[in-house]
Amino acid sequence: MNPIYTDAEKAREHLEAVVWPNGPVCPHCGLVNEATKLEGKKHRPGLYQCNAKECRLQFTATVGTVFERSKIPLNTWLYAVSLLTASKKGMSAHQLHRMIGVQYKTAWFMMHRIREAMKDGGAGLLGGEGKVVQADETYYGNTSKRAKHYKKGHSQKECIIALVEPGAKARAFHAWSGNTQKNAAMLLSKHADQKSALHTDESPIYKGLGWNFAEHLTVKHSAGEYKGTKGQHTNNAENFFGIFKRGMVGVYHKCEPQHLQRYLTEFEFRYNNRIGLGIDDAMRAERALKGITGRRLMYRRSGKTQAV
Length: 308
Description:
Elements: H1 8-19, E1 35-37, E2 48-50, E3 58-59, H2 74-86, H3 93-100, H4 104-117, E4 132-140, E5 158-164, E6 170-175, H5 180-191, E7 197-201, E8 215-219, H6 235-252, H7 260-272, H8 281-290
Parallel strand pairs: 4-7, 7-8
Antiparallel strand pairs: 1-2, 2-3, 4-5, 5-6
Helix pairs in contact: 1-2, 2-8, 3-4
């Protein structure tokens, strides 16, 4: 019943308040709160003109965002953002296209744009002094033995590595084919504070990676151990994987490798903005809207060299 989901003008006002908390920002020159709103029948709704002498260009709140040049009404966009951010295990493009009244391919592309807005661009390091970072991996895809090209083994699946700070945030990455240990080392050095304690299972990919952390403790799952003598475990990372796999199997069913990172970003966003951290559905949708700027996606038809 919120008017931002039914009225395009109310949706525009809400979007402007979210992306321009200090007044209109020119996407061309970056000038803040120095623009004139152009009104009248000859101007489209929400159009501004920059007052800078060297600029004087026109813009709206959607210029330079994932919504730019979209013919879909803004209230429909906001409704789609609310649905995707509120669904714990995701929402299929077929379900979205039925609920918001657009074609399936339109819903599919909208969802990829929203996932792009969910990226946590300004995130710092996980953990810190006196804190713990859990690292764990899982494998996705090529699970049906009835499939024509089924091959057994982890080398035939897509490797996913997750870093989780218990009680806080998580980062999930699609580790492309290659040296998995090298990928894990790179991700830990880039996203985990070395003052943290590193907790992993006994997988060989983490062997020798804990020397630059405060300590490296492992839990022996092969011996039926799920919590070590010093309290170490990887349960938080496994919980994240549990939600991810339930969503991928029960909602999305199939994902091509080139899109896997965006799906991981979606689940990571909802995990990092969950109720347990005091963030409700409305706040989560607003946080996704704050990430739309500077992330425009261009559609490529199938058969081209690049694709969304």
